[in-house]
Amino acid sequence: ETVTNVNEKGLIVKINDVRVFIPLSLSAIPKDEKIESYKGSKVKFRITEYDAKTKKVIGSIKNVLDEEKQEKLNKFWSEVEIGKKYKGTVSSLSTYGAFVDLGGVQGLLHISEMSWARNTKPEDVLKEGQEIEVAVIDLDKENKRLKLSYANKGPNPWDNIEEKYKVGDIVKVKVVKLMNFGAFVELEEAVEGLVHITQ
């Protein structure tokens, strides 16, 4: 129905000649939006209260949106499976990874699933608000938890390592860490080896 009027308390909608009041608390209007901009707009609501004596009718947009959101979540959890790919938005970054919003469902993308390279920080790979493709690698439907893998992580560099390097090859490397027993060196991104102190 169309919003015919607004005030500081909420929205007014008319169905035929019946006036329906939608309080601000049930309007689902964000706090930073001006209520005046809703005048003349179409809204979907549910009638939650009706008093025949006073002709008072109360409606709720929030109820409808909550139900639609719940239906969407139920559909997601009934269809999700390991290996399925989704497009999502990075909602936040932490020291151990990122949380990705898949349309109302948050999944954890661990740093180990972002890049094959060691000592990579989440902010080196992703930014908040970035749209990415992920795959589900683990799920717990009962507790509504998802573990994800980044589609752009690329193939495992160790998969064809024996084709690239042979025993006896001389290769140029970067020393990444010194220990009392030797040095860790990087042959290429995410491929490291140990040069023992005896060598």
Q: State the low-pLDDT regions, or none.
A: none
Rg estimate, integer Å: 28 Å
Work out the oligomeric state of the chains in this entry.
single chain
Query: Can you tell me the overall shape?
Result: elongated
Summed up, the helix count is 3
**Strand neighbour order, sheet with most strands:** 1-2-3-5-4
Which structural class best describes the helix and strand composition? Answer: mainly beta
Strand content: 35-45%
- Total number of strands: 13
**Could you estimate the helical fraction of the residues in percent?**
10-25%
End-to-end span in angstroms?
A: 80 Å
Secondary-structure element string: EEEEEHEEEHEEHEEE
Keywords:
199 residues, 5-stranded mixed beta sheet, 3 helices
Q: How do you describe this structure in short?
A:
The chain has 199 residues and is mainly β.
General description of the model:
By secondary structure, the chain is mainly beta. It has helices spanning 61-79, 122-125, 161-164; strands spanning 3-7, 10-15, 18-23, 46-51, 56-60, 85-94, 97-101, 106-110, 131-140, 145-150, 174-179, 182-188, 191-196. The longest helix is centred in the middle third of the chain and has 19 residues, at 61-79. The radius of gyration is 28 Å and the shape is elongated. It starts with a strand and ends with a strand.
Helix/strand layout:
Layout: E1 3-7, E2 10-15, E3 18-23, E4 46-51, E5 56-60, H1 61-79, E6 85-94, E7 97-101, E8 106-110, H2 122-125, E9 131-140, E10 145-150, H3 161-164, E11 174-179, E12 182-188, E13 191-196
Parallel strand pairs: 3-5, 8-10
Antiparallel strand pairs: 1-2, 2-3, 4-5, 6-7, 6-9, 7-8, 9-10, 11-12, 12-13
